[in-house]
Design a protein that fits this description.
Elements lengths: L2 E2 L4 E4 L3 E7 L9 E4 L3 E6 L2 E6 L4 E11 L2 E8 L15 H107 L11 H12 L27 H16 L18 H13 L3 H14 L4 H13 L3 H14 L8 H17 L3 H14 L4 H15 L4
Parallel strand pairs: 1-6
Antiparallel strand pairs: 2-3, 3-8, 4-5, 5-6, 7-8
Helix pairs in contact: 1-8, 4-5, 5-6, 6-7, 6-8, 7-8, 8-9, 9-10
């Protein structure tokens, strides 16, 4: 049988009642507090404190805190007036039993409502994470489609220019051929007139020319004039970086370009072990394009295999790790997505304007993986890092604020 606590204390104002219940050495984890609009219970075995309140209170605004050896309970009155007593003065056991049962029923309903609310909140967070991932994938698809359209337009323009050059070349050759034929005809007519004039005297015959001499004379007439000798001065335009001069980071830009060039030349030593692969399958760029196509068609496992083989061939290309992280997000391999995103960020150094977009993608993919693991503080750091790189992105601003709301418990 529990021991009833009688050495409690209470004070009041017109709007609030303060109750202090000594815990008699009990630890915080062993204190059970139930508070409703007409009943308060503090149980820490073997002690029990019950209060059948003098008047109903606003339970939604009541608070309880355990510390300094006491349970401090603050309840808000529904009407602003002073109470004569803290508890009802009745000793009717049936009345108290009815109040206790109603209080326990209300408390259970409250717990059930909170549990349902927490479940709905968790479901909303999962839905948000899924929507974020779908949005990122849509942006990735749009970017790939835009690149394809740009490349297609460029190829069409180059083909049209080549066809025009071929047409002009053909027309020029045709004109030269016609001109040559006209010149030959004129030469034949002149020779015929000379022979006709000589034959009219009847006594002088022209000396026949050798066939070889005629051919040499004709070839010399067809040769173009010698070209003039001269010098051509060549000057190279200096490379211009997009960063403003007052914020110049030319050294970092040059270092990034040098790293990119080295990465393209770097081939891992285990290429010799892949003798069973075709020639194109030994090219990391070809494998990356294949992985991109698999990702676009929803074959995420195929994309992971293509990116992984490309990484075996060359471990210095950050896009391979970042794209494989996107595949792992799709496959719910969240820890692997975090690992690949981190590797991509390590390779995307030094941070320059040329790799800003790649760093934003890597931060967002790692942040999304953290949020799906409910590590919202870590995810917020990545989204803030991405927002710092691209502060004008409305999508990043909205997603970052959403994560802050989840952390603060104010998300809808």
């Amino acid at each position: 049988m529990p021991l009833l606590v009688t050495d409690y204390s209470w004070t009041q104002t017109d709007s609030t009642v303060y109750i202090s219940v000594p815990l008699k050495g009990a630890t915080v984890g062993k204190v059970d507090i139930i508070s409703t609009d007409e009943y308060i219970k503090v149980h820490y075995p073997p002690y029990l404190f019950e209060a059948f309140l003098f008047e109903p209170v606003d339970d939604a605004r009541s608070t309880a805190r355990v510390g300094d050896g006491a349970a401090l309970i603050s309840v808000q009155k529904k009407t602003n007036k002073l109470w004569d007593h803290l508890m009802l003065s009745t000793n009717d056991k049936e009345t108290k039993k009815g109040i206790r049962e109603r209080a326990l029923l209300k408390y259970q309903e409250k717990l059930s409502s909170e549990s349902k609310s927490n479940a709905e909140k968790k479901q909303a967070e999962k839905k948000y994470a899924l929507e974020t991932m779908m949005k990122l994938e849509q942006e990735e698809r749009d970017s790939i489609q835009k690149m394809k359209d740009t490349e297609r337009e460029k190829t069409s323009a180059e083909l049209a220019a080549w066809q025009l050059r071929q047409k002009e070349k053909l027309e020029e050759e045709t004109q030269l051929k016609l001109q040559s034929q006209r010149e030959n005809q004129s030469t034949v007519q002149v020779v015929a007139k000379q022979e006709k004039g000589c034959s009219g005297g009847g006594t002088v015959k022209p000396k026949p020319k050798s066939k070889g001499a005629e051919n040499r004379k004709k070839n010399q007439a067809d040769l173009p004039a010698p070209r003039t000798v001269g010098n051509i001065q060549v000057s190279f335009t200096p490379r211009v970086f997009p960063t403003a001069l007052r914020e110049s980071r030319v050294q970092e830009e040059e270092e990034w370009l040098q790293k990119q060039a080295e990465a393209r030349r770097a081939v891992h030593a285990d290429v010799e072990e892949l003798n069973d692969l075709k020639e194109e399958q030994r090219n990391p760029d070809w494998l990356k394009d294949k992985g991109d196509k698999c990702f676009a068609t929803g074959d995420y496992l195929g994309a992971v295999n293509a990116y992984s083989l490309a990484i075996r061939l060359n471990r210095k290309i950050p896009a391979l790790y970042s794209n494989r992280a996107a595949c792992h997000l799709k496959l719910r391999n969240l820890h692997k997505a975090i690992e690949d995103s981190s590797q991509a960020l390590d390779l995307l150094t030094p941070p320059v304007a040329a790799n800003e977009a790649a760093r934003v993608r890597a931060h967002v993919r790692r942040g999304s993986a953290f949020c799906q693991l409910q590590l919202y503080a870590e995810g917020l750091q990545d989204y803030q890092a991405a927002l710092k790189i691209d502060p004008h992105s409305e999508t990043l601003q909205a997603d970052t604020q959403r994560i802050r709301d989840i952390i603060q418990g104010t998300a809808d």
